[in-house]
Write a structure and sequence with these properties.
The chain is globular. The longest helix is centred in the C-terminal third of the chain and has 18 residues. The chain is built from nine helices and ten strands. Keywords: ATP-binding, Nucleotide-binding, Transport.
Length: 263
Amino acid sequence: MRTIEVDDLKKTFSSRQGWFGARKTERALDGVSFYVDEGETYALLGPNGSGKSTLIRILATLLLPDGGRVRVLGRPLPGGEAEVRRRIGRVSVDAAFYKKLSARENLLYAAQLYGLEPAAAEKKARGILERLGLEPRRFHDPLEEMSRGMQQKIAIARALLHDPPLLLLDEPTTGLDPASKREVQRFLEELRAERGTTILLTTHDMAEAERLAARIGFLARGRLVAEGSADELKRRADAADLEEAFIRLTGEGFAPAAAEEVV
């Protein structure tokens, strides 16, 4: 069964310079097609502005496509937004929180939105955070007093409270220290193995994509240029590593990993 199906997806943004300036149009996605099978981890690799975040936002029902066909968990988009929102978990590179509230308060608020019983949700959240390496004493600290790595672990716990069959992860480890990054990667591996969760991951990190994903798609200038396993992509490009394969197949390099996605 295919959890995600994308066919000839297009998305264009337009802007105007000043009151009377000419309107500028930029195509963020230009005919992207791919699929993700149930229980699979699929990684999208691309530099800033390649369209990774735009694609994730469309799949998460936060943006409407301009053309093409999209199905998520068997539901068409647009059309099946309500059901998709109930059944996905999403983590973004800049996860939003109520920063004055504690981790516990933020997570219980999210649990209430999903109609979950507070005590059970708190127990589950604590279990996830323990596996991600967050010290139990930090559970009651305001988010504004936590590091970026800690906040990202809270975001992952929030995305998993309602046991979603699909996780959409938009650069979930960007900006994390090496130890936090390894903890998150290990947890995602365990999650897929234990629950069969389907994961779509966008990243700048070649090693992360190679470690976590069964298949990898190279996204450049709004187009899916190549896809396959890491070994298949390296063989196709006659490259020693995944970064060299990306450069040879797309003609593009990468900005520093800590940079933020433009579109």
